[in-house]
Amino acid sequence: MKILHNPLCSKSREALALLESRGPKPRIIEYLVHPLSLRDLQALRRRLGQPVRAMLRDNEDLYRELNLADPTLTDTQLLQAIADHPKLLQRPIVIDGERALIARPPELLNDWPR
């Protein structure tokens, strides 16, 4: 199991603590230090099974500056924006094999299959 983690984010820290309390420590990927490539993000979107827009932090100033609310932007353009600006990636994201979950709020992990 892996967690895309930002140690400065309280929700990310809560999700990590919850995962650690349930079993083996997950592999921690600090995605701001080690950004995901476009290809990695495309694979992550498939694991999430959600629209690309669910992966975006639309409350970031950068979201507005880049005009990412534009409905004509393609999934690839949105994922490239995340690849170029990792702080736009929603967090935390937990990955377990071929499944992934945006654990916001972290309590969503309580109902997520182990």
Alpha carbon gyration radius: 14 Å
Task: Name the average pLDDT.
Answer: 95
Strand order, largest beta sheet: 2-1-3-4
Subunit arrangement of the protein: single chain
The main sheet comes to: 4 strands, mixed
Separation of the first and last Cα atoms:
10 Å
Estimated helix fraction: 25-40%
Structural class: alpha+beta
Q: How much beta, percentage-wise? A: 5-15%
Low-confidence stretches: none
Order of helices and strands: EHEHHHEE
Present the secondary structure layout:
Blueprint: E1 2-5, H1 10-22, E2 27-30, H2 38-48, H3 61-65, H4 75-84, E3 93-96, E4 99-102
Parallel strand pairs: 1-2
Antiparallel strand pairs: 1-3, 3-4
Overview of this structure, please?
This protein has 114 residues and is α+β, with helices and mostly antiparallel strands. The protein is 34% helix and 14% strand. The chain has 4 helices and 4 strands, in the order E-H-E-H-H-H-E-E. It has a 4-stranded mixed beta sheet with strand order 2-1-3-4, with helices on both faces. The longest helix has 13 residues, at 10-22. The radius of gyration is 14 Å and the shape is globular. The N and C termini lie close together (10 Å).
